[in-house]
Amino acid sequence: MFRRSIPDDYGLVFRFDEPASRDLHMVFVPFPIDAVWLVDDEVTAVKRLRPWIGLGKATADTVLELPAGEAADIEPGDTIELVDG
User: Fold this and answer.
1) Where are the domains of the chain?
2) pLDDT band at residue 1 using 50, 70 and 90 as cut-offs
Protein backbone atom coordinates (compact mmCIF):
# COMPACT_ATOMS: atom_id res chain seq x y z
CA MET A 1 0.00 0.00 0.00
CA PHE A 2 1.01 3.61 -0.68
CA ARG A 3 3.65 2.64 -3.26
CA ARG A 4 3.40 4.24 -6.70
CA SER A 5 4.77 1.20 -8.56
CA ILE A 6 6.74 -2.01 -8.10
CA PRO A 7 9.75 -3.30 -10.05
CA ASP A 8 9.16 -5.97 -12.69
CA ASP A 9 11.23 -8.50 -10.73
CA TYR A 10 9.47 -7.83 -7.42
CA GLY A 11 7.05 -10.02 -5.53
CA LEU A 12 5.67 -10.51 -2.04
CA VAL A 13 5.15 -13.87 -0.37
CA PHE A 14 2.81 -14.23 2.60
CA ARG A 15 3.08 -17.59 4.40
CA PHE A 16 0.54 -18.77 6.96
CA ASP A 17 0.54 -21.75 9.33
CA GLU A 18 -2.46 -23.47 7.75
CA PRO A 19 -4.90 -23.13 4.86
CA ALA A 20 -7.78 -20.72 5.43
CA SER A 21 -9.78 -18.16 3.51
CA ARG A 22 -7.38 -15.30 2.66
CA ASP A 23 -8.57 -12.02 1.19
CA LEU A 24 -6.72 -9.15 -0.48
CA HIS A 25 -7.84 -5.61 -1.19
CA MET A 26 -6.35 -2.86 -3.30
CA VAL A 27 -7.30 0.17 -1.21
CA PHE A 28 -4.46 2.73 -1.55
CA VAL A 29 -2.72 0.62 -4.22
CA PRO A 30 -2.65 2.71 -7.45
CA PHE A 31 -1.47 -0.05 -9.82
CA PRO A 32 -2.74 -3.54 -10.71
CA ILE A 33 -1.17 -6.74 -9.37
CA ASP A 34 -1.56 -10.46 -9.95
CA ALA A 35 -2.45 -12.48 -6.86
CA VAL A 36 -1.84 -16.21 -6.54
CA TRP A 37 -3.26 -18.34 -3.70
CA LEU A 38 -1.51 -21.65 -2.87
CA VAL A 39 -2.15 -24.65 -0.62
CA ASP A 40 0.87 -26.95 -0.23
CA ASP A 41 2.47 -25.38 -3.35
CA GLU A 42 -0.65 -26.05 -5.48
CA VAL A 43 -2.38 -23.03 -7.00
CA THR A 44 -5.97 -22.68 -5.77
CA ALA A 45 -6.76 -19.34 -7.43
CA VAL A 46 -5.23 -16.60 -9.60
CA LYS A 47 -6.68 -13.14 -10.05
CA ARG A 48 -5.67 -9.78 -11.51
CA LEU A 49 -6.56 -7.14 -8.93
CA ARG A 50 -7.45 -3.69 -10.22
CA PRO A 51 -6.01 -0.53 -8.68
CA TRP A 52 -7.93 1.00 -5.76
CA ILE A 53 -11.00 -1.28 -6.05
CA GLY A 54 -9.69 -4.81 -6.59
CA LEU A 55 -10.77 -7.58 -4.23
CA GLY A 56 -9.77 -11.21 -4.15
CA LYS A 57 -10.46 -14.14 -1.84
CA ALA A 58 -9.51 -17.83 -1.88
CA THR A 59 -8.24 -20.61 0.35
CA ALA A 60 -4.47 -20.54 0.86
CA ASP A 61 -1.57 -21.20 3.18
CA THR A 62 0.59 -18.96 0.95
CA VAL A 63 -0.35 -15.87 -1.05
CA LEU A 64 1.84 -14.31 -3.76
CA GLU A 65 1.53 -10.73 -4.97
CA LEU A 66 3.25 -10.16 -8.32
CA PRO A 67 3.46 -7.38 -10.92
CA ALA A 68 0.44 -7.41 -13.23
CA GLY A 69 0.95 -9.91 -16.04
CA GLU A 70 3.47 -12.13 -14.23
CA ALA A 71 0.83 -14.76 -13.42
CA ALA A 72 -0.67 -14.83 -16.92
CA ASP A 73 0.40 -18.46 -17.52
CA ILE A 74 -0.46 -19.72 -14.01
CA GLU A 75 -3.71 -21.66 -13.50
CA PRO A 76 -5.43 -23.40 -10.59
CA GLY A 77 -3.95 -26.88 -10.22
CA ASP A 78 -0.43 -25.76 -11.21
CA THR A 79 2.39 -26.30 -8.73
CA ILE A 80 4.72 -23.49 -7.66
CA GLU A 81 7.84 -24.30 -5.67
CA LEU A 82 9.07 -21.42 -3.54
CA VAL A 83 12.76 -21.51 -2.68
CA ASP A 84 14.16 -19.43 0.17
CA GLY A 85 17.20 -17.61 -0.96
Assistant:
1) 12-67
2) low
Beta bridge partners of 47: 35
Q: How many CA atoms lie within 13 A of 82 on its CB side?
A: 18
Q: Do 37 and 44 touch, CB atoms closer than 8 A?
A: yes
CA separation for the pair 40, 62 (Å, rounded) = 8
Instruction: Give tens-digit pLDDT for 5-52.
Output: 788 888 999 999 999 999 999 999 999 999 999 999 999 999 999 999
Amino acid code (one letter) for 46: V
For residue 76, give the nearest of 43, 54, 34 by alpha carbon: 43
Alpha carbons 58 and 2: distance in angstroms, whole number = 24
